[in-house]
Every structure is written in structure tokens, then in C-alpha cells.
Amino acid sequence: MKLYLDTADSVLIQEINKTGLVDGVTTNPTNLAKQGGSPRDVIEKIFTLLPQGTISLEVTEKDPEKIYTQAHALAKLKDSVLVKIPCHSTYYPIIKRLVTDGIRLNITLVFSLAQALWMNKLDVHTISPFVGRLDEIGQDGLAFLADACALRNQYGFKTEVLAASLRTVAQVEQAIRLGVDAITISPKLFRELSAHELTDKGMAQFTADWSSLGSGIRFP
Ligand code: G3P
């Protein structure tokens, strides 16, 4: 199960990558714009920080033919790039062509079971069902994620399920139970997932008990 960071912030990527847990990064126009400056420089920095990492880069063109060309250009930047394309019906024909060309796609903004099925049938590398944004319009994001996983299992599709737009520890835990192939999470959510109050409390207790032996104790 792959762990991606949903950020383009190289400082945070560098810090969290020290844990040895990071398999890659998912970027989008929003998180690249947040960094300011040249998106190309930001991407190059991320490539340097994660030489083996899978990096999702999203198309920014609107016209399908331009997206087709841009997708090829993004894929050429690095073997491990997944090209993100929004799951919009006007793009289905070029998604089909790009898959035929061997371009690894991460179809983003997937919000319905039908969209998920279409993308599985087009044999894309990855789909990104968005959990939090569905919850925010009063729908059940985790139920949709469960459906997307069941679809893959039921028909034996090879398309990977990348749980995206995750907001809480509970959502990530449920995504893991569902057997998603990957999750992408913010650096903040990574920290929340990694911490537990009983770990902190237990460490404080161990330190206090050890101190009771006095300062002259050697171990080993
Ligand atoms: O990378 C895509 C996705 O995880 C973004 O989610 O809803 O937090 O903008 P959101």
C-alpha cells in the first residue's frame, strides 16, 4: 500500500521523507500554485527529493488535444510520473488514446461509481476517488470509496484505487480496511496519523521510572 503526500511543499516533503515511509507525491494546480514561482522548478525539486518516488503531475490545459500533448510531455519528465487528468467525459477519448500509448494516468476528481467503472474499463493506471469533497456536499465519501474498491475486486480490474481528499484519521483507517492501493494525505494528516497520546504518555512514564534509579546507572 503506497503512501503519497498531497503537497508540493518541498520543505515538508523533505522532512517527512526522512521517515522512510513516503512512496511519492501527488500534486495538482492548487498545491503547485500555493508554492508560487515556477511550477517547473517546484517539480524538479520534488524529483530531486524523491528520486525513486511516484510523482503525480496534473494537466493544466483544457482542450482535449492540448491535454493529450501535455500529458505526453509530463510523462517524459520522469519514468515514475503519473499524469493526472480530471474525470470529465470530454476527455474520455484522449484518456483512451493515452492508455493505448502506454502513458500511466491517475484519473482525478472521481466522484461516482459510474465514473470509476468507465475509468477501469479504459484501463487507466490509477483512479483517485475523492472522499472529503463528497462528504462536504452531504454524500458519503467512504461509501463511495468502498464501492470503488468493490468494483475493482468484483470484476478483477487492474486499475489501482488511490484514496484522495482524505481529511481525518478515521477516514484513512477505513481506507486501509477497504484495501485501497494507495492513499494521499496532507503533511498535517500524516502527523496526526503518526501520533498517539498513549505513546507519549508511555514514554513519559518510562522516563520518569528510569530516572528513579538515579543518575549513576549505566545501561547497558
Ligand atoms: O490530490 C487530490 C486531492 O487529495 C485533493 O483533495 O479535497 O483536499 O483538495 P482536497
Strand order of the largest sheet: 1-2-3-4-5-6-7-8
What distance lies between the first and last C-alpha atoms, to the nearest angstrom? 38 Å
CATH class categorisation: Alpha Beta
| SS-derived structural category | alpha/beta
Beta-strand share of residues: 15-25%
Mean pLDDT across residues: 97
H and E order = EHEHHEHEHEHEHHEHEHH
Q: Over the alpha carbons, how many angstroms does the gyration radius reach? A: 20 Å
Fraction in helix: 40-55%
Number of strands: 8
Distinct small-molecule ligands in the complex: SN-glycerol-3-phosphate
The CATH topology? TIM Barrel
Question: Looking at this structure, what is the CATH superfamily?
Answer: Aldolase class I
CATH architecture descriptor text: Alpha-Beta Barrel
Major beta sheet summary: 8 strands, parallel, barrel
Poorly predicted residue ranges = none
What is the number of domains? 1
Describe the global form. Answer: globular
Q: How large is the count of helical segments?
A: 11
Description of the molecule:
The mean pLDDT is 97. Helix 1 (10-17) runs parallel beside helix 3. The chain has one domain: Alpha-Beta Barrel (TIM Barrel). Strand 4, helix 5 and strand 5 form a beta-alpha-beta unit. The two termini are 38 Å apart. The chain has an eight-stranded parallel β-barrel with strand order 1-2-3-4-5-6-7-8, surrounded by six helices. The protein is globular, with a radius of gyration of 20 Å. It contains eleven helices and eight strands. 50% of the residues lie in helices and 16% in strands. It is α/β, with parallel strands linked by helices and 220 residues long. Bound molecules: SN-glycerol-3-phosphate (G3P). Residues 6, 26, 28, 130, 132-133, 164-165, 184 line the site of SN-glycerol-3-phosphate.
